[in-house]
Amino acid sequence: MSNSNEYSIKKIFRGASIYSFGEVLTKGSGFFLLPLYTRILTPTDYGIIGYLQVFISLLATIFIFGFHSAQMRYVFEYSTDTSKVGQFLYTINIFPIVISLIIFVPLSLIGSTNGWVLGKDSIPFFPYFVIAFITVVVSIFNQNMKSYFQTKQKYFRVASISFLMFLISTFSTVLFVVEFKIGALGVLAGKLIGVFIVSLIFAWLYTRDFVFKFSKEGLVFAMKFGTPVAFHLLLGMIHSSIDRIMLGHYVNLYEVGIYSLGISLSGALLIFVSAFNQAYQPSYYQLMSSDDNDIENKLINTFKIWLIAVTIGTSVLLIFGKPFLSIFIGPKFEEVSSLFPFLVLSVYFGSYYYLFSLTIFYFKKTKLLPVITGTSAIINIILNILFIPYYGIFGAAVATIISHFWVSLISYIVSRKIFKVQLPIYYIIASNIVIGFTCLLVM
């Protein structure tokens, strides 16, 4: 194996750093301008944005069919057959885009013509949901493209996509929100413009590897590998967003907006976790496919370093997050400061899943994933039903913590049955003690 393909913790963290930078900028279109947005947008605007972001995420998860995950596995499996890979790349893009257009175009026309409204507060179908549909279609191609560059370990290319999306989305959103004063609609339109223009710019780097011939064999592989992933991601989306949907039935959009903003802010930790996962997954596949005699030790050492980084990041956010946000987000959203530590904890407990699930993906046991996320979603729904009527948004946050802990625990148990690696339990215990002590200081 060549040096460029050797497993390296330094290489993984370098990639994670680059991805984190890109993700920070992407999130920055909403995060860095929060002092501006929270003084112009209302909590109701944030409620609409949070509601529609869930809607967009759910539809994108359904209509991508898990093909972006299948793409990574297929490229590794048939890396020497460029024609076969090219046909596969074309197939996994054209199929979901055509299917989504067949559904979205008539639905948009009917909904707009008949003046449909959705949600408790009657969000107009046009233009809000029409913009959401267009965003979903463009996001399918964009997600496949980023996943392919990730597979090829093109760190800077992935970060460049995020950087340009940040610039374009931020400029567009500020123009719509500040200059034209169209509130939530401006935020949604700005994000659509960002993902659309960036997809156009980088499309040639992705499509040049296409072979424009539909592959039935490729579609079968993608469906077999990706369908359980799609169900898994859909259940995961339900798990992570059901709280906002259920809150909409118990509280007004003001409180949904408070909670949605808190979710966005706690995403600061998730940026690192997801970036590390993006950088680590290709390296993990390479290591597991190699004839290396030291696989277990390399996996354990990587886990130790990752856990130390996550523990430090979580502690810093818990200690400094609340006082920082009290100043940063303005008086209209003051309640977010008290909610923030709970949501950070939910991200911490859920972060373990990203590492444990790699084993499930590598060994093609994706049929187990819907069981993991499905049980977690059920737990989250039950706890939300029990907690929200009495504790409101704080009850939803506690339910999220418990369900995220469950998804990490069950994914660890399943991965251990597939491939036994003796993870350093004492590191995990020490990390939880540190986080628990920090919580006592700040809550």
Please tally the helical runs, counting DSSP H or I stretches of 4 or more residues: 14
Output mean pLDDT.
85
Radius of gyration over C-alpha positions, nearest whole angstrom: 21 Å
Distance between the termini: 51 Å
Instruction: Estimate the helix proportion, in percent.
Output: over 70%
Return the structural class: mainly alpha
Strand order of the biggest β-sheet: 1-2
For the secondary structure, the number of strands is: 2
Uncertain runs are none
Q: What is the 3D form? A: globular
Beta-strand percent range: under 5%
For the largest beta-sheet, the strand count, sense and barrel status come to:
2 strands, antiparallel
Order of helices and strands: HHHHHEEHHHHHHHHH
Explain what the structure shows.
The protein has 14 helices and two strands. It has 443 residues and is mainly α. The chain has a two-stranded antiparallel ribbon with strand order 1-2. The termini are far apart.
Any chance you could write out the topology, listing elements then pairs?
Elements: H1 9-31, H2 34-40, H3 43-63, H4 67-77, H5 82-113, E1 117-118, E2 123-124, H6 125-151, H7 155-179, H8 183-207, H9 216-250, H10 253-289, H11 295-328, H12 336-362, H13 369-418, H14 425-442
Antiparallel strand pairs: 1-2
State the main characteristics:
two-stranded antiparallel sheet, mainly alpha, 84% helix, 443 residues
Question: TL;DR of this structure?
Answer:
The chain has 443 residues and is an all-alpha fold.
